[in-house]
């Protein structure tokens, strides 16, 4: 009997605003944006992402609460928390919610474009992990 290997496309699930323009990640990674905690929870029931990126930009995007929702489904998936403002309270909440990495966004571009930059870098990293 011969063995067959099925290659699985790595998936990144992003909680946050998609870029203003129709940009795509230039890699073999499937990226899906969600704009609410409810959508994020639904996506977790149908997908098994290798990485989740959560934007923390209250009041529209509460990344800390999104991380907590993810952790109820999966305690092991790596989560990147992105934010414009890393202060002590945000860092403590991120640690308590078991964030894997935290990335401070610059304020040079719009929030969606800054988030897309992190998505691109993370997708490239994830793609190299599978190589």
TrEMBL record:
SUPFAM superfamilies: CheY-like. InterPro entries: CheY-like_superfamily, Sig_transdc_resp-reg_receiver. One of its GO terms (biological process) is phosphorelay signal transduction system. Residues 26-99 form the Response regulatory domain. This is Response regulator. It comes from Haloferax marinisediminis.
